[in-house]
TrEMBL record:
This is Galacturan 1,4-alpha-galacturonidase A. The lineage of its organism: Eukaryota, Fungi, Dikarya, Ascomycota, Pezizomycotina. Residues 1-20 form the signal peptide. Residues 98-109 have a biased composition (Pro residues). It is found in: Secreted. Keywords: Cell wall biogenesis/degradation, Glycoprotein, Glycosidase, Hydrolase, Repeat, Secreted, Signal. Belongs to the glycosyl hydrolase 28 family. GO terms for biological process: cell wall organization; pectin catabolic process. Pfam families: Glyco_hydro_28. It comes from Podospora australis.
Length: 524
């Protein structure tokens, strides 16, 4: 059988630029950054080694009956207007987001290239013959486009790789630095393996207005993202050697402690994805939430390491590890997260979420919520397991937060959670943040188990639970709860409106008013 090998060199710069070269063989696209002379020299070797290496692939599966309808148009955008009463004015406004147009990234002048173009000297171009000299034989070699540009931006090549190899193909990023200066919409992938080998992707921050205006809406709470990843049967592997650097400090400083700065992008959003596998990626200084899973089914995210922590006077709020929303069958395992907000957060319409072996430093740890912020729209959360979790200096450990809205939370398990110095380990509220109308919430929280929850609380409260008087909690079960104040003594267990409390295994020491806060600032 004669294999037709087509080698494409789509964009090229000289060896001192950062712009990557894209080569394509069959349905495999290989990107090689030209960030060093070595990279250029290694390009051919990488190319050959990587396309021939055996690789594990995820299977292609037929649409299941229980699939969410990934194509369904989302009609109601409940969060787009500033809501009266629940949110502070200005925090949720609609931000104009014109459609992104590929190729219009912010210009970035490289002094080196500037000099070259001034002198009109020829920029050396990587020719296909240099790439794969020996291997080409009599196969046709096609040079599609060679473009010289002053923009040090690897996004066009990356997007081109997804276009060329995103269906029944493989996209390989070879070692080196990639500069990401544009939003990416890669939602129409199918049967695509993305492999990043020792790649460092750096999201630019020298043109904040670009990101704020082009960031893709994710509808939830008016938030948006720098990268939409979706489709069917997609794997994204970083092999523990790949780094996503969001330059988050710039965003943290820009937000000045505000929770929601419009146009501040979520680093990576799994959007309308089915059978998605993400593994072995390290994040440092994400722009906003590290990840978000929305309108997706069967998403596995394993061996991820995230850290976004501020070095300035401003807090790193909303740097959550992940949030799931309108999604089902999500598996999270082997994560290490340090962040200034919730570590793993399960939001409205999440079903069958399994979280295990997660270590969180700081952060809000394992949380269901917030849900129910829109009283016109119900939020449902069910069948969630958080297990084998280690926490250090978090705000809470195993908790549930709802607004006084509608929907339900049921069948939740928090198991084997060990922690030190957590502000208020077990916390449940029906009126998060406002601490008003707590008893009018119509979100029953039922069948929740806390098992083997062990550690030290920062103050003298181990548990604070205020359920809605209008929809009391039921089916609560507590087993092997061992929480001691770090300063010694006995911890208080405050609770209100728990049905069948006597048989729950929890011995309450006093009532918990609706106004009881999520975080304490001292003993109560
Ligand atoms: C920022 O990006 C926008 C949109 O691409 C562009 O119009 C503008 O010129 C850029 N500004 C700078 C300073 O790069
Ligand atoms: C998935 O893509 C690979 C190429 O990466 C191809 O070999 C395989 O046949 C595709 N699977 C299906 C079911 O099309
Ligand atoms: C990638 O960038 C980092 C810092 O930005 C630098 O230290 C490193 O040498 C670069 N790597 C390559 C292969 O150019
Ligand atoms: C992303 O791309 C898909 C198809 O390629 C398109 O249907 C969708 O509208 C795009 N999304 C955004 C937010 O531009
Ligand atoms: C779920 O996705 C994984 C890849 O993470 C895949 O191997 C598996 O077959 C999928 N399960 C179903 C039921 O489609
Ligand atoms: C978690 O990490 C351990 C140790 O590296 C590994 O053996 C295990 O397979 C990982 N689990 C998953 C789900 O990746
Ligand atoms: C848990 O995950 C960490 C990485 O966060 C890994 O080093 C460790 O081996 C995993 N443990 C198990 C039991 O899988
Ligand atoms: C959650 O799902 C319910 C039932 O499908 C739907 O009515 C509601 O709009 C969804 N809520 C959100 C916030 O997506
Ligand atoms: C509760 O959730 C667990 C874990 O997702 C699941 O195995 C179990 O079947 C659920 N129970 C009910 C009654 O739905
Ligand atoms: C918590 O983290 C701090 C700082 O990283 C460290 O000094 C301390 O030993 C950790 N405590 C536990 C119990 O792991
Ligand atoms: C309790 O949880 C810890 C981890 O947090 C685990 O090491 C221990 O084995 C668990 N105990 C039981 C009885 O399951």
């Amino acid at each position: 059988m004669r294999l037709t090998k087509v080698l494409l060199v789509l964009y090229a710069l000289d060896s001192t630029g950062t712009q990557a070269v894209l080569t394509k063989t069959g349905s495999t696209c290989v990107l090689t950054p030209l960030s060093t002379d070595n990279a250029r020299a290694a390009r051919k070797r990488d190319f050959e080694a990587e396309v021939t290496a055996p690789r594990k692939r995820i299977g292609t599966t037929v649409l299941q009956e229980r699939d969410l309808n990934p194509e369904e148009v989302w009609v109601d955008d409940p969060y787009s207007e500033t809501k009266k009463g629940l949110w502070k004015p200005g925090t949720l406004g609609r931000y104009p987001r014109p459609e992104p147009s590929p190729g219009s990234s912010p210009p970035f002048e490289s002094p080196l290239l500037e000099r070259r173009s001034e002198s009109r000297g020829a920029v050396p171009v990587i020719l296909d013959s240099e790439v794969d000299n020996d291997d080409l034989g009599d196969f046709p070699s096609v040079e599609l486009e060679i473009r010289q540009t002053k923009v040090l931006d690897d996004t066009p090549q990356l997007l081109e790789a997804f276009k060329q190899c995103g269906k029944d193909g493989i996209v390989i990023l070879s070692p080196g630095n990639y500069s990401i200066r544009q939003v990416m919409n890669t939602t129409s992938l199918s049967n695509c393996s993305i492999e990043m080998h020792s790649a460092t992707l750096v999201w630019s921050v020298d043109n904040i207005s670009y990101w704020r205006s082009r960031c893709f809406s994710v509808t939830y709470a008016g938030r948006c993202t720098a990268w939409l990843l979706g489709g069917r049967d997609v794997s994204l592997r970083g092999f523990g050697t790949t780094l996503f650097d969001g330059n988050g400090q710039t965003w943290i400083d820009l937000a000045k402690g505000q929770a929601n700065l419009d146009g501040r992008p979520i680093s990576l959003t799994v959007w309308r994805g089915t059978n998605i596998f993400i593994d072995g990626i390290t994040w440092r200084m994400a722009q906003f939430w590290h990840t978000f899973v929305a309108y997706s089914q069967n998403v596995t995210m394993t061996n991820l390491d995230m850290s976004t922590w501020t070095n300035s006077q401003y807090k790193s709020v909303n740097t959550d590890g992940t949030n799931t929303w309108n999604s089902k069958d999500v598996r999270i395992a082997n994560w290490t997260v340090k962040c200034g907000d919730d570590c793993i957060s399960v939001k409205g319409n999440s079903t069958n979420i399994h979280v295990s072996n997660v270590t969180c430093y700081e952060s809000g740890a394992m949380v269901v919520g917030s849900i129910g912020s829109n009283s016109r729209q119900p939020d449902y959360v069910e069948n969630v397991v958080f297990e084998n979790v280690n926490l250090n200096h978090s705000s809470n450990a195993a908790w549930i937060k709802t607004y006084p809205g509608t929907g339900y939370v049921r069948n939740i398990t928090f198991r084997n959670i060990r922690f030190s110095d957590v502000n208020q380990p077990i916390y449940v509220t029906s009126c998060i943040y406002s601490y008003q109308n707590c008893d009018s919430s119509r979100i029953p929280i039922t069948n929740v188990r806390w098992e083997n929850i062990t550690g030290t609380s920062r103050y003298n409260v181990a548990v604070g639970i205020h359920c809605s008087g209008g929809a009391p909690c039921d089916g609560f079960h507590f087993e092997n709860i061992d929480i001691k104040p770090k300063a010694g003594g006995n911890a208080k267990v405050l609770c209100s409106n728990i049905k069948n409390q006597a048989s729950s295994g929890l011995q309450c020491t006093g009532p918990c008013p609706g106004s009881h806060p999520q975080q304490l600032s001292g003993n109560v």
